[in-house]
């Protein structure tokens, strides 16, 4: 099937979702993908920050294939050795005290579960979230997504959320002191907002406020987690440990899966039946999780994430205004709108992403890109900038 045929069928039969790239991808290997006509692209986008180990990593492929030959699925009403192995690896990498795991299928589900656990544990209903934050599209997580464009059609049925500006501890204290708040929810790096990093002292201040008011602190690490930023969780570099962490995206290296890491005290208050998911913890997903985490540790890929960030920053720093983010979760602030540059990069056979900040492009390369891949990206970016125009500056 050609690209044109594929696009025609999808446009006829699927309801609209994203403004899709004009390509039909059919194969992937490492940091590369190929379209239906055989064109190869260097993938620094990773299908929305998913392909942590690159495409079709042999360890993940072998694990999923072996599991598929044994038992494709049975719900988590039964015990499973592959789920036990995945849970053990995840608990071993979790911050101290957060070695309790709930498996689900998507980042939105993980955030929604974390919010439910917080409300049940505290007996409160209020939630504080950050301005410009993004947490998902199911109703509970959508309620905490700041962009009103996505919330507006459902306002009448969304739980109430109070938003506070990032960095303003006084605003957070005023809400937490005067209202019954179950949880504070934040992304350590607001990726879609343009890779806006949370200041460490601000997050530490939120941790202290939550402790003082009996509020739970939730990290949405759907994008920052699983080693992409150089550490398994951002709790270490931020110097603050949350009560709950939502993980997804990179966790299965391409296989849909998510998880919530739960504090010991919160986990002790959960009873059988309080949470559930038919497909959460399914065997194929668990095989992918175990293989991903094993590879992450054995190949020291978290350290490689930091090296890649340094290499990209050195290669493109002179031609961009700012390099944001950590590890393989990067934002490049340009001196011109990013969208034409993103299109020009695609013409150079390189895939990157945009953000809600029109001047910031997002890079989410896999942790397996080589030095040559970084050089190829930098050369393509130079060409893309040459092919686009920067706005004239006032004198």
Automatic annotation (TrEMBL):
Keywords: Aminotransferase, Pyridoxal phosphate, Transferase. Its EC number is 2.6.1.11, 2.6.1.17. Its cofactor is pyridoxal 5'-phosphate. CDD domains: OAT_like (cd00610). It comes from the Bacteria. One of its GO terms (molecular function) is N2-acetyl-L-ornithine:2-oxoglutarate 5-aminotransferase activity. InterPro entries: Aminotrans_3, Aminotrans_3_PPA_site, Class-III_PLP-dep_AT, PyrdxlP-dep_Trfase, PyrdxlP-dep_Trfase_major, PyrdxlP-dep_Trfase_small. The keyword Transferase applies. PROSITE patterns: AA_TRANSFER_CLASS_3 (PS00600). PANTHER family: ACETYLORNITHINE AMINOTRANSFERASE, MITOCHONDRIAL, AMINOTRANSFERASE CLASS III. Belongs to the class-III pyridoxal-phosphate-dependent aminotransferase family. This is Acetylornithine aminotransferase/acetylornithine/N-succinyldiaminopimelate aminotransferase.
């Amino acid at each position: 099937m050609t690209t044109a045929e594929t696009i025609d069928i999808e446009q006829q039969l699927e309801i609209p979702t994203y403004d899709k790239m004009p390509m039909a991808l059919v194969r992937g290997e490492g940091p590369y993908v190929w379209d239906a006509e055989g064109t190869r692209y260097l993938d620094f986008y990773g299908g929305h920050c998913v392909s942590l180990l690159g495409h079709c990593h042999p360890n993940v492929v072998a694990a999923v294939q072996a599991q598929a030959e044994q038992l494709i699925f049975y719900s988590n009403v039964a015990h499973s050795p592959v789920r036990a192995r995945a849970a053990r690896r995840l608990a071993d990498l979790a911050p101290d005290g957060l070695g309790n795991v709930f498996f689900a299928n998507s980042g939105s589900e993980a955030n929604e579960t974390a919010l439910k656990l917080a409300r049940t544990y505290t007996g409160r209903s209020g939630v504080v979230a950050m301005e410009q934050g993004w947490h998902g599209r199911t109703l509970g997580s959508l309620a905490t997504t700041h962009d009103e464009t996505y919330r507006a059609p459902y306002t009448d049925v969304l739980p109430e959320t109070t938003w506070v500006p990032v960095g303003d501890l006084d605003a957070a204290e005023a809400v937490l002191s005067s209202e019954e708040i179950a949880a504070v929810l934040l992304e350590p790096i607001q990726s879609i907002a343009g890779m806006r990093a949370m200041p460490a002292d601000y997050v530490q201040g939120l941790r202290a406020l939550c402790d003082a008011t009996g509020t739970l602190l939730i990290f949405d690490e759907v994008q920052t987690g699983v080693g992409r930023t150089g550490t398994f969780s951002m709790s270490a570099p931020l110097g603050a440990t949350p009560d709950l962490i939502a993980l997804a995206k990179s966790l299965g290296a391409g296989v849909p899966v998510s998880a919530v890491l739960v504090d010991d005290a919160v986990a002790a208050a959960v009873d059988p039946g309080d949470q559930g998911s038919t497909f959460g913890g399914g065997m194929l997903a668990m095989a992918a999780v175990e293989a991903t985490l094993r590879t992450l540790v054995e190949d020291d890929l978290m350290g490689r994430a930091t090296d890649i960030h340094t290499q990209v920053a050195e290669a493109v720093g002179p031609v961009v205004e700012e390099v944001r983010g950590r590890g393989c979760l990067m934002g490049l602030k340009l001196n011109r709108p990013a969208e034409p540059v993103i299109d020009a990069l695609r013409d150079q056979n390189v895939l990157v992403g945009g953000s809600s900040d029109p001047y910031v492009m997002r890079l989410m390369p896999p942790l397996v890109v080589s030095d040559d891949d970084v050089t190829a990206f930098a050369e393509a970016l130079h060409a893309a900038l040459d092919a686009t125009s920067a706005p004239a500056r006032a004198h």
